[in-house]
Amino acid sequence: MHRRPTLRTIVVGVAVALGVTLAAPAQADEAPATATISGTLVGTTGHGFPTFEQVIAEDLTGEPVAYDFTAEDGTFALDVPVGTPVHVLARPLSWYEPGYYTGDGLPTTVHMENAATVESPAAIGAVELGLYPEISGKLVGDDGGYAGGIKVEVDDAATGEYVGGGFSDNDGNFTVPGRTDRPVRLKVAPLDWYVDGYYTEPGSLASSDTADGAVIVAPAAVGSITLVSRPTITGRVLSDGAPVAGEYVVATPAKDGIDGGNVSTATTAADGTYRLRNLDAGTPYIVQFRGLPTTVLPGWYAGPDHDLSRQGGGYVPVTAPASGIDASTPAPASISGVISLGVDARFDRLYVRATEVGGARPEYEPGSPVDARGRFSIPWVWPGVRYQLCFTTSGQAYGLVAGCVGQPGQPLVEDGAAIPVTAPATAVTATVLGVGPPVDSPPGLTGGSQVGRTMTIGEGGFAWVDVTYHYQWLRSGRPIAGATGRRYTPSATDVGALLSVRVASEMVGRVATSFVVTAAAPVVRGAPPVLVSRPAITGKPTVGQRLTATPGTWSLGGLTYAYQWLRDGSPIPHAAGASYTVTLGDLGRHLTVRITTARAGYTATAATSAALVPKVPAIVKLTLAHRTIGRHEHPHATVRVTAPYGLAVRGTVTLRFGNWKRTVAVVGGRTVSFTTPTWDRGTYAMYATFRPSSSAPKLATKTTRAYLTVR
Predict the structure, then answer these.
(1) Threshold 0.70, pTM exceeds
(2) What are the C-alpha distances in Å from 710 to residues 307, 385, 634, 658?
(3) From the centroid of its chain, how far is CA 351?
(4) Which residues are CB-neighbours of 139 under 8 A, at least 6 positions away?
(5) pLDDT at site 94
């Protein structure tokens, strides 16, 4: 006898495996003491011990307190808290009916109120299980069709809940388990051909509504149940007026289109007839005849008295149920021709396939192998229809390249460039080229991805000799017009793009092969130009005078220039031209011009000129007391300094007369007087010079003179 491990047992086991020491639980947390209720489930004679069936101990409210599964001999053991009265419930998973223990050796009951109350420890002995009561009957198809392997479900009559079921045998007979404690209803759920529904009365299967199903109290024999066939579509297939056997016919819901999934299939009998089953009444279907390459042309049903439609768009939907959906096709045509090879090779295993132009492709596309002399003939194509002919290669034809027929006698072309052939056709010609040279160590790119720097693709790249190379430079995968040499110089248009070059081969009788070499990084702007000579300013730096900037000279040609005049390093508003007129606000300030270069694809740079400081000259007035004096007289002179625009005068005045000079500070409009030593006879120049101090930065040095005659 085995027992279900307690949670404490499992935790201790895991702890031992992990090497963890568990502390002993506190007394207050000890689980209630338990004892065992043991017994044995006993089945009906001939069915053996109920093995691995569930047994549950429930308290008197129906809540489970313990459970176990029976051993091979049907024994079980429930660990139940001591002093807790319980009911013992057997819940078999097999053909036995669930029930409560009522007493040693007595049958179980499905009603809890009739259950025996048990307290642990106890050995309750044998718990006898009863089999489900059976409901039997026979399924019969209304068309005499096969009714085996169909599912019969048992539903609760009150709730509709599924409680059991089974399948009919090859003769349509079935036996399913009922319920002792409740009435049930029978539902038949065929996988195909027949309609689902509930049993309503002997010989009838009519309702899909649970409530309409007949209420059955098991055990019961319901007799025969007639299955109602689902709608069908029937018809006949003819080719050139003769019946076709073995033709494959499929039905697809019209709402899904011709590419939808098939919901019914059939194969024509010897007289050409077919039956598509398992369809929905009132639903339109597309009926397609797949065709066999030796019997009939494929297509879609296109209405009575019409040939099949070759294109999916020409079908006529058929609403189920329907009969007389016949298919008729004309006698097949053929397309034949001969091919030549561009290289020394064999025709073995070349195959040509014909695909209708503009039509939906059927599962079968007509085709033909190519014989040892290059000839082919494609049978079973629709007369008057345009086909695209494409060749595939395999086996010993590995050195040839597949493709489609283009211009007569010319090399095969890609799918999109094929020229259709109208059936029937003879003398179709084409040339199959050999494979091109394989790529061997593609060369690299040199030069760097930068505007103005020439990039070069290395030589070679194909494994064979006698190859003519062709180059095409690409900008982000698109060809660059005129860039077909080994060298290319990126321009402004290439900035941000990834450049590559496609290298293609050319060899007589062989297809061109190619490879692409891609630059390591996108193209960046060219390096900024280098300043050769600094920008300069010409002109007189005084109020009202125009100054002109020259941009200097640079290492790169093709530049354009932007100008910005600066006053003490800050931009002067609206002064962005090559010339500038000095204003009163510029006096005493540092004027410069910043030149910014520009050329498409190159990084811009800038340079600034040397500074000019515009100043206004002071007004210096030198006055002699007498312009002519005797040799024994001392010359007397006065100097008055003023400034325009109301500027303050601060600085010094120096009077120089021959080798004699004297300097005096002057502020504002003050007049300074000078008396010089006596001089010999002659005429002399006397100079008065005003030099502004640092507190008068807007004034410029000014010198004036006067002449004195000594007699």
Answers:
(1) no
(2) 141, 131, 10, 13
(3) 37
(4) 147, 150, 152, 168, 172, 173, 174, 188, 224, 225, 227
(5) 64
